[in-house]
Amino acid sequence: MLISLSSIGILKRHWKCIINTWNNVADFNANANYQLKYVGRSSKYAGAGLTMKSANLDKLIARGALRATDAAFAALQRDYDEFRPMSSLHEEDGKLVAYIGTKEGVKAGDKFDVFMCQKNDNEIEWKKVGTIKVAKNSVWDNQEGANETFEDEAEDGEKKEGNAELKYTVFDGKPGKKVGEGCLIRLAK
Questions:
Q1: Element (H, E) at 133
Q2: Cα(115)–Cα(44) distance, integer angstroms
Q3: C-alpha to C-alpha distance for 150 and 145, rounded to whole angstroms
Q4: CB atoms within 10 A of CB 34
Q5: Which stretch of DSSP H or E encloses residue 10?
Q6: Residue 90: is its pLDDT beyond 90?
Q7: pLDDT, tens digit, for every residue of 5-54?
Q8: Over 50: is that where the pLDDT of 3 sits?
Q9: Which of 42, 57, 98, 160 has a Cα at 20 to 30 A from 106?
Q10: Are 67 and 47 in contact (CB under 8 A)?
């Protein structure tokens, strides 16, 4: 790949403009192609699952940071409509399933609204056609490191909600005319 000296000069000016804009937040917000709206804040504790005497201190920090971030996003999803988890619904072995789990804050008994696609005059509309509930003991533990065990692993004292052996979360009910493959689901209020 050949890059001319004039191209490098253009790139330098472009990045300098972006960096200068980032340093001036008010100017960046005024000239952006979009508007940001403050929705809310959330914080959560999530245990990393390792003892402090562990030789895997880097893994302890990485796991704790990832789990705390996932827990904070899950709290946002429960508290604010804009962040509620949405996923496609699938059929596996005669069961209703979705590829979401504990990482998204899903718990046994959670209710999800089911939406079906309806096409009207070149427009697509999603119409609510029902509600489904997460089956007991059928939540997929899709958190980072859910299947990993480390030397000197400690219990974090919290009850495990999900099962890392699953490949998806299972819902009560059977696929039918309105509820099945191709529908979207969203955590109900």
A1: strand 123-133
A2: 30
A3: 10
A4: 5
A5: helix 5-23
A6: yes
A7: 445 555 565 556 556 655 676 776 777 777 777 877 776 666 555 455 55
A8: no
A9: 57
A10: yes
